[in-house]
Amino acid sequence: MMKRKEFILGAAVGLTFAAAATAGGVIDWPGANAQERPAAGRLIPSAGAAGLAFAPPQGAPLSFADIFDQVSPAVVQIDVETRVAVPQGMIQIPGFPPILPPGRQAPGEDEEGPTAQGAGSGFFISADGFIVTNNHVVENATKITVRLSDERELEARLVGRDQATDLAVLKVEGGNFPFVSFETQAEPRVGDWVIAVGNPFGLGGTATAGIVSAKARDIDGDTPYTDYLQIDAAINRGNSGGPTFDIYGRVIGVNSAIISPSPTGGSVGIGFAIPASIAKSVTDRLMRGETIQRGYLGVKIQNLPDDYLGPLDLPADQEGAYIAEVTLGGPAAQAGLREGDIVVALNGQPIDSSSALTRRVGQAAPGDNLRLEIIREGRRQTVTVRSGTRPADINAPPGNEDENEGSIEPNRPQAPVGETIEGMTVAPLTDALRQRYSIDERVRGLVVTAVTATSEAGRIQVPVGTVILQVNGRPVASAAEFRAQVAAARAANREGVLILFRTPQGNRPFVLELWDN
Question: Residues 337-357, buried b or exposed e (16+ Cβ, 10 A)?
Fold first, then answer.
């Protein structure tokens, strides 16, 4: 289970986002790490220089002590306060507003709800007080306090944050702060040494060491623009937002997430850091006061799995991003992209996965022209899309969608109509069927009115009222077109057909094994 290290809200709910919670008091930095106020300005490690290759200095890794001494003054503990949504003593029943138990008085209008405390990590990136951390450490915080390695405490303000990369920038008043720099020239390799410094479980000033275990990890749908570094240096709750250093003391990543079987978020040696190349680009813009905007197509995409290739008559090594759904009125729809299209290149650069397409589109500015090479019904063609602006809440349902689409009205006769193909009774969409199954008038295809329980469709429980949009990448609007695609698949000795279903939860492609009836 993926654990992103965040603070704990109250005593009853424990979130697995990396900040460690404090329990009714202040956690002091270990006395052994307390020191006089550090020297001001940029910290220049004595070994190596920016841009050098990742070859270890002579004698490494006998000790990381010198590197830790040089860079740790730039690392800070971040304490946050947030408001608990439900006032203490009130009962929250899903779907209903909070209620008071009998005999309890409601809080006054001017009373504020209880607070929760949390803690994370961060680091100075400039001498004038800019600090980098994770978005999830400071999101929804009402008060942010930064504790330095010399035990000074400074109040911080949020400069900006970017949820899509889980990065945030804070600012404290003052100057001549010790700071470190992102390394964007030398590329870390799998097997290179790393040092993580931060505030695990509120302990502060903690260093752990390990190696780069892997690169370009895609771990989280909430941060689709990040190719994470995987490291095995121990990072725990409270390490979020802290830096990952190389053995020269250069920042190569921002600690963000772990995989842990424990609900408390303990380390098992699988941690993830946002690469410096991504972190620097985003935080530089946030420091300038910019809002992070990204390009947007308006499609739901997925990887192109191997079992789609046969039904679509594509080569065994074909790669790309499969478009499962096109947002009505979005840039892709306006340009003519369709469900079932496979994107294989963007502006001349190959696309081998859905992640690659997401990140390449995200790099575009709103208004840019995106030249997409696609495969549609077995033929290659080019579609040019004018990029939109990615919505702040990319997962919010469109406002013009019918929330009840796909539901069946009660007290209506539900006698199946149509022809039975591969265990599904299907019929063209008519006004009566649209009304019966609450299907939007813009949807085109065949509606499933009954399913044979012993068929493959029955085994996977295709719901009545589901719409078949495409078969083997080709739109179908009649039972004859559906039957022709099945016959072609049988003639080619294929084991299944790729069907694009429309459900109330969105479009879903599925390879249906052909039924031997």
Answer: bbbbbbbbbbeeeebebbbbb
